[in-house]
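From the pipeline queue, job 12 of 40. The input is one protein chain; the requested action is below.

Action: predict structure.
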Amino acid sequence: MGGFLVNIGTFAVYPYLAVLLRERLDVGMAQVGLVLGTATLVQFASAPFTAAFAERVGLRRCLSLATCLYLLGAVTYLSGAGRPVLTVAALFLSCGAGALYSPAYRAYLVHGVSTERRPRLVSAGNAAGNLGIALGPVVGALFLHEPGRLFAMNTVLYAVLAVGHLLLRPEAPIAGGAVVEPFRRALRGLAGLPFAVTVLTHYLYMQFYQYLSVFVEGRLSAAYYGLVMMGYSLGLAVVQPLVARRVGDARYPVAMAIGFSCMALGMAAIATGRPTGVAAGALAMSVGNAVLFLKNDLEALSLSKRSAAVTFGQQRLAVGVGSLFSGVIGGSAYGLFESAGLLPGFWLAVATQCVLLPPLVIVVGRRSARRPAAVRGSAWRASRRR
């Protein structure tokens, strides 16, 4: 429930932040983009360190602190009308709250449970979050021209959440405990292959999320596009719990083959530019991402030697890196295809990458994993000879 309500509040505001910042800061879109990009980068890049913080102070305390920051951010938005500094401060407070909440929330769900139960619990948590992502923009649209009422509603929502999280049961200590690394080693014990595949997943997925609205402008109505994106998020919320057990049992390359194949089909369908093609493409993306998002996290939990909180924090960093690549590489590619008048070719190029890049990532990841093992073996043999 917490993940659902937090995302209701977050995504009631997030899709309309560009408009809000432009109005309150009285600047151009380039400056707005810089503020939003910096805040997002801070949120994702800090996730390994906020996860390490949760590892030290406890998951419940971290969740409570995060909801208090969400509340402070909503109050700052509410009082920031006519005060640009307060509006920017509210944005960074909300991003800091998200950096604290996300890894601790997922770690709390799987804390102390068996490996067999992880797929169901992780998928349930993701489904709750995706449902909030789907409904949040609808709530925000109702208050689009009355931001004061929106932030007042968010203030009440986060106040309730802050109280609710204070009433959570503290997590039970794990027998034997885990070694708590210093903050400077926040990336120690990184599960390399799941990290790389998560980067790739979000590099490809974010091109769908970031550039579809521009592509369909003049092709689809705003209402139809909104329904497509809501359907995508609802699809994730419904599909992931249904396939959780099979995804958990599947070998990683098999899950990758299914997920990236669905993404490739989705991108190719979007290239048609027709309403039915875009809707079918979003549905295929929903299925593919339901598999990949879940399997990437499960594989990271399985391979990592760190706590669940730190592992999820490392995965959030991978999401940020993939999103950054999508913005830099995908944005430049979209501009080139647009200037050439060949925009459908952009989606076909992304579809081709969905087919070609995953096998390459697997090969590189496996070779990288073998190299340290070979080095350790050589060192052991040398010590034996001495």
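Job complete. DSSP finds 14 helices and no strands in the chain.
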